[in-house]
Write a structure and sequence with these properties.
By secondary structure, the chain is an alpha/beta fold. It has 13 helices and seven strands. Bound molecules: S-adenosylmethionine. The site of S-adenosylmethionine has 19 residues, from helix 4 and strand 2.
Length: 389
């Protein structure tokens, strides 16, 4: 059996989930699928359940199910997978093209179930808002979290599920740690860092946390909501300090969302300015920063920003107009120059034609006088012969 120590070596990085898992539609990356597959195949011991919170169409559940199916160990210890989702099409899913045939609010549960069936997964489906579900499934060995989209869900999961983790055994995967808009995840995981240290951050996505120790004794299971502003900021700064590069930028962006909640728009705006200046080329950070702006910026500021955009646009257009005017002036000067040249050329032509005509006349006169001269002796002889002269 693999131990928590093995986890530190991140063995999933050398493993690839089967094609049937990699090719499924879903919102998690191939690396995340391979991680879940490895955990189910190599790590699960039967000591607790597997929770897939936020299973969507079933890619994460399928990766776990395929891992259990391919697990070489005794099937009697085969753990159950508990898959949570509302299974309701949301506007962002429809916009992204997941459900061309559904309206917002329609159920996609049938598609999840078809996927789970194909993997013969030992799945218990927990449908509906996770806020309405408590946990009664005993110890949890693997907790995959792709559902902590609000601080309320974060705290609900912290209260209901975290106390069932097994110290020295359990693993949490935080799929949204990489997204720079959900500060409650960074604050909660930093708060629990001594019990659930990070062992991996898969490129662009999930962090993996190994439960090395029991939860801190003072932890009341709320995660985020029971902390005051200073505690939240301190924990957020602690989380940021663990990272460098683009990863750090994502957490700094998340801090802007935290500042928005704690201190209001001006503080968030200042933080966003710093983040954007430091990471100008990160698309993810820009998306997160724009989202924070969209829900954080007061209306007056929004109008001001729109006016600024219009002003910049107008300035660009008037610069274009000035440029076009200069080009027209230049073309006019050129036209006048060509017109003058044409006039001069026509005059020169008229002059040349006159010259030609006078040369012609001179030539003709010359020719006739030469003719007279050359025929004079003959004419004389002719007249003499006729006796007229
Ligand atoms: C990013 S998706 C999960 C992607 C999934 N893990 C995969 O493998 O493709 C997040 C899911 O969380 C679900 N969700 C969000 N809030 C929820 C809530 N309060 N209760 C239940 N499900 C929720 C959504 O329906 C959505 O399917």
């Amino acid at each position: 059996m693999q131990t928590l120590d093995t986890i530190r070596h991140r063995p999933w990085r050398q493993v690839e989930a089967p094609d049937e898992v990699l090719s499924l539609g879903g919102m998690i990356s191939p690396q995340e699928r391979s991680l879940l597959y490895w955990l189910a195949r190599e790590y699960t011991s039967g000591a607790g359940a597997i929770v897939d919170a936020g299973c969507f169409l079933g890619a994460s559940t399928a990766a776990l199910a395929a891992g259990l199916r391919d697990c070489p160990r005794n099937s009697r210890t085969r753990p159950l997978i508990f898959s949570y989702d509302r299974f309701e099409a949301e506007p962002y899913m429809i916009e992204a093209g997941w459900f061309p045939d559904l309206q917002a609010g329609d159920s996609f549960r049938a598609r999840f179930e078809a996927t789970a069936r194909a993997f013969d997964a030992p799945v218990t489906v927990c449908a509906g808002d996770i806020l309405t579900h408590g946990w009664e499934g005993g110890p949890i060995e693997i907790l995959f979290l792709d559902i902590l989209k609000t601080s309320e869900i974060n705290d609900h999961v912290a209260r209901e599920f975290l106390p069932h983790l097994i110290p020295g055994r359990s693993v949490i995967i935080q799929q949204d740690y990489a997204w720079g808009e959900l500060p409650w995840i960074h604050v909660t995981m930093e708060r629990l860092a001594s019990s659930l240290p990070i062992v991996d951050w898969l490129p662009w996505s999930s962090t993996v946390h190994a439960m090395t120790r029991p939860l801190p004794s003072g932890f009341l299971g709320t995660g985020y909501g029971d902390l005051d502003a200073d505690e939240k900021l301190k924990l957020m700064d602690g989380a940021i300090a663990r990272w460098s590069g683009e990863e750090r930028g994502r957490l700094e962006c998340s801090k802007a969302a935290l500042l928005l909640e704690l201190e209001g728009w001006d503080a968030a705006r200042d933080q966003l300015e710093v983040v954007r200046a430091a990471y100008p080329r990160s698309e993810v950070i820009e998306v997160c920063a724009s989202n924070i702006e969209a829900y954080g910026r007061p209306e007056l500021d929004t109008v001001r920003a729109e006016l600024d955009t219009v002003r910049v646009e107008l300035e660009c257009r008037s610069a274009d107009l000035a440029q076009a005017g200069a080009e027209i002036d230049q073309a006019r000067v050129e036209l006048e120059r060509r017109h003058d040249e044409l006039g001069a050329a026509m005059k020169a032509r008229e002059h040349a034609e006159r010259e030609l005509a006078s040369t012609d006349a001179t030539l003709r006169a010359l020719q006739s006088s030469r003719l007279m001269r050359s025929t004079q002796p003959l004419r004389r002889l002719y007249y003499r012969l006729r006796g007229t002269r």
